[in-house]
């Protein structure tokens, strides 16, 4: 069966937006995603996905070796497209690689058969836009609130600090306050709210 952008939940071809082994990202808490969306559209942002519900299943070994090493394994189900991603983050804050998988339940069954255990789940509603080199996510996370993530992927580890500065400048264009910067993952924030 031919895979098209539409049946993978994409409105446009992502080009190189998700290519690289490093992701430089900043996350900001916001009161109103509509205001940020309007600012993005004024900058000629291109919608990549709209109205997605993402379920992230976090995996680790029984001895929690990955967590101790600053790593995360995540299987993500994107609905309504049924697109499935395997995301590997770490070690370190910026290391990140991902690949498409076929079938959410089958992917989890395979990983569990390899010795991984589910250590948590997170559900969020997400829209993604592209503006130049950046991908921008507008997230609604139940019991946490609304967030804007600004990110870029790269293979060039020496460029990470330069990208971080560019993202900070872009945040200023979107009028995202540095006082609203969130340095913890949604998962960490949720575990603190329990």
Keywords:
194 residues; alpha+beta; Hypothetical Protein Pfu-838710-001; 9-stranded antiparallel beta sheet; 5 helices
Q: What's the structural blueprint in terms of helices and strands?
A:
Blueprint: E1 22-30, H1 33-42, E2 46-60, H2 65-68, E3 72-79, E4 83-89, E5 96-101, H3 104-113, E6 117-131, E7 134-141, E8 145-154, H4 160-173, E9 181-182, H5 186-193
Antiparallel strand pairs: 1-8, 1-9, 2-3, 2-6, 3-4, 4-5, 6-7, 7-8
Number of domains: 1
Q: What's the rounded overall pLDDT mean?
A: 89
The radius of gyration is: 17 Å
According to CATH, the fold-level topology is: Hypothetical Protein Pfu-838710-001
In N-to-C order, the SSE pattern is: EHEHEEEHEEEHEH
Q: Which residues sit in consecutive blocks of at least 5 with pLDDT less than 50?
A: none
Counting H and I runs of at least 4 residues, what is the number of helices? 5
Class in CATH? Mainly Beta
The name of the CATH superfamily reads Hypothetical Protein Pfu-838710-001
Description:
- This protein is α+β, with helices and mostly antiparallel strands and 194 residues long.
- The chain has a single domain (20-193), classed as Hypothetical Protein Pfu-838710-001 (Beta Barrel).
- The chain has 5 helices and 9 strands.
- It has a 9-stranded antiparallel sheet.
- β6 and β7 (134-141) form a beta hairpin.
- The protein starts with 21 loop residues before the first strand and ends with a helix.
């Amino acid at each position: 069966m031919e895979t098209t952008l539409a049946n993978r939940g994409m409105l446009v071809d992502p080009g190189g937006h998700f290519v690289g082994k490093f992701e430089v990202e900043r996350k900001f808490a916001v009161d109103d995603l509509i205001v940020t969306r309007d600012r993005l559209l004024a900058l000629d942002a291109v919608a990549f996905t709209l109205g997605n519900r993402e379920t992230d299943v976090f995996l680790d070994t029984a001895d929690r070796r990955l967590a101790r090493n600053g790593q995360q394994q995540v299987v993500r189900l994107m609905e309504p497209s049924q697109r499935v991603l395997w995301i590997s983050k770490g070690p370190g804050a910026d290391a990140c690689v991902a690949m498409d998988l076929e079938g959410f339940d089958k992917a989890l069954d395979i990983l569990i058969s390899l010795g991984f255990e589910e250590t948590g789940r997170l559900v969020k509603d997400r829209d993604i836009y592209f503006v130049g080199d950046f991908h921008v996510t507008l997230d609604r996370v139940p019991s946490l609130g609304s967030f804007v993530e600004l990110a870029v992927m790269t293979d060039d580890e020496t460029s990470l600090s330069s990208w971080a500065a560019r993202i900070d400048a872009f945040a200023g264009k979107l009028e995202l306050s540095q006082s609203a910067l969130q340095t913890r993952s949604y998962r960490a924030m949720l575990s603190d709210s329990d």
